[in-house]
Amino acid sequence: EVQLVESGGELVQPGGSLRLSCAASGFTISNVAMSWVRQAPGKGLEWVSRINGGGHSKYVDSVKGRFTISRDNAENTVYLQMNSLKPEDTAIYYCNSRSYWGQGTQVTVSS
User: Fold this and answer.
1) Adjacent-strand bridge partners of 24
2) pLDDT at 68 exceeding the cut of 90
């Protein structure tokens, strides 16, 4: 059974940092693309970042220079390091691979 389990979301002040984790099971992440997608309150899904099987990464313009996607093949886990967080980063963050989605983790940026 394929599962994606996100963790690491919490309340953080503007300018702070968080690291989200997405633990995968039922398949190997090393040879597939993995993405982070978010949904802000009252808004639709927004693609945030992607890392492909070759390790190449891409980001939405609004997070470039602040967020870093990475993966640990030994742990079968993908990470999203988020620095210099802004209130507009507040959202539920989902891990995605092909048709599989995690349950999401809430990130709230507020003072």
Assistant:
1) 4
2) yes
Half-sphere exposure of 93 (CA within 13 A, CB side): 30
**Average pLDDT estimate for 31-46:** 96
> What's at 80, amino acid-wise?
L
Token duo for residue 79? 């990470």
- Residues ≥6 apart with Cβ < 8 Å to 12: 18, 85, 107, 108, 109
In this predicted structure, the answer to whether residue 62 has a pLDDT above a threshold of 90 is yes
Given its phi and psi angles, is residue 72 left (phi above 0), alpha (psi -120 to 50 degrees) or beta? beta
Radius of gyration of the chain (CA): 13
Interatomic CA distance for residues 27 and 56, integer angstroms: 20
Query: What does the pLDDT read at residue 53?
Result: 87
79 CA to centre of own chain: 6
